[in-house]
Amino acid sequence: xxxxxxxxxxxxxxxxxxxxxxxxxxxxxxxxxxxxxxxxxxxxxxxxxxxxxxxxxxxxxxxxxxxxxxxxxxxxxxxxxxxxxxxxxxxxxxxxxxxxxxxxxxxxxxxxxxxxxxxxxxxxxxxxxxxxxxxxxxxxxxxxxxxxxxxxxxxxxxxxxxxxxxxxxxxxxxxxxxxxxxxxxxxxxxxxxxxxxxxxxxxxxxxxxxxx
Amino acid sequence: xxxxxxxxxxxxxxxxxxxxxxxxxxxxxxxxxxxxxxxxxxxxxxxxxxxxxxxxxxxxxxxxxxxxxxxxxxxxxxxxxxxxxxxxxxxxxxxxxxxxxxxxxxxxxxxxxxxxxxxxxxxxxxxxxxxxxxxxxxxxxxxxxxxxxxxxxxxxxxxxxxxxxxxxxxxxxxxxxxxxxxxxxxxxxxxxxxxxxxxxxxxxxxxxxxxxxxxxxxxxxxxxxxxxxxxxxxxxxxxxxxxxxxxxxxxxxxxxxxxxxxxxxxxxxxxxxxxxxxxxxxxxxxxxxxxxxxxxxxxxxxxxxxxxxxxxxxxxxxxxxxxxxxxxxxxxxxxxxxxxxxxxxxxxxxxxxxxxxxxxxxxxxxxxxxxxxxxxxxxxxxxxxxxxxx
Lengths: 212, 390
Description:
The complex is a heterodimer.
Chain A: H1 7-14, H2 30-35, H3 40-64, H4 73-95, H5 97-103, H6 105-108, H7 114-122, H8 129-158, H9 167-170, H10 187-204
Helix pairs in contact in A: 1-8, 3-4, 3-5, 3-7, 3-8, 4-5, 4-7, 8-10
Chain B: H1 2-17, H2 27-37, H3 56-85, H4 95-127, H5 134-144, H6 152-167, H7 180-191, H8 221-226, H9 236-241, H10 253-265, H11 271-291, H12 310-317, H13 328-348, H14 356-385
Helix pairs in contact in B: 3-4, 3-5, 3-10, 4-5, 4-6, 5-7, 6-7, 7-14, 10-12, 11-12, 11-13, 13-14
């Protein structure tokens, strides 16, 4: 047990949250970060779906890694990811239909999410199943927390609510002339917010700044 | 004598701000105030340099002077339009109109300067560089391109956005890709469309709607045209003189023309950009005249120069020396492109009643690319001339 949660393995879980964050450092998976972050609820469900898919696809590919022929490995990876995404999609449709409607095509597009292929190629093909599983969860959370942070700002400023709860209305901001910011609803706002997160992160950790 | 006293005071507190002094962290703030009050005593010590009496401070001051006619006219117009909307007859150049307009416009200017300069000073202290004069013009341009009834907190927010995301992020004055003043406006345009478009926001006090005469429309000429009322368009002279609803500084083309003359005579604004932008706008207007698919397209092409902010954009916005093209050929191409796109967006896209703002920002994006090709073409031409014979 202690072997399973060694400090090396914990690093796999915590590194993607900050220093190796898939969105802010590796700049992967930007497309869905722009598309599903208007409201917090879809962003949360999306984050959860990606965590599940990265974790299990990493696990499965890592288990199979020795028997996958190198020349067709991408196809095999795609088949595994696609099956997992279909399962997730069906579950969403069955239990949270309205959110699944809002996410529409983006759940299906998890298949092409760069983070997934990146982790499978870079990690799962060369590491043991358990490490790969942790790595998948870590990267999923690293992606997810950025998504939730961005969607918090966008929903709070753009719609005046948090998780659908109308905060601005409850504290009476509209009656003193406050107006929701329409720019936050539009996709460019997500780019700006991701940019600001990267800005903050880099000014806190100097090691991320490239030498000229 | 008075000036000397001030000089003495400044000299007395100066050591505190020098390196090692108690307040050395605020050095750049002190520097800014000193060079605002007096001619700085810093001179180049050695080496040969090309000298010119025009420095950043003078350039900015001249632009401000060029903006004054538009500003003063805008103040009169703000008051005049207000009294018109509540059914009181006042003459245009009256103290009443000026007084009312001043009380409406002045707070916007103050908010713009306080927010923008505040951020500039803070950033300068943190980064330890000098506060420069870059915001002087932006701070004046921002109020001039706002509707007079815009809430002040929006002006503050937009200014903050423009200074932080338009300028400081790229490295401050002279490094920005986009024109900061236009960025402030585009931010408001997309963030709070209800306060930046429509037929009430252009008249002071009309948003609240108190005492507005029945049947009075505060729509701008562009607003009327976009709504399909091309029959309500005023005649050319009215539009040129500018006693019409619109953003504060954009309505009077006469005042803008005076500013343009000042900029061109002093060599600060590029006449190439102004001329080519007007040419581009006229050409697109002409093409649309020929197409003539609807009433808007049939508006005579020269009208495009006097409606909306085309003139203001051409004289004060597109000519921004930082975000426009740098090469001379590039300036022709850039100006033409901006003018062409302005009229195209304005007429063809009903979602954006005014295309000048978007066209200039688009032009800003392409300016470095245009420069690149102009420079490259020059290199190729000279390489061809200098063939090496073996």
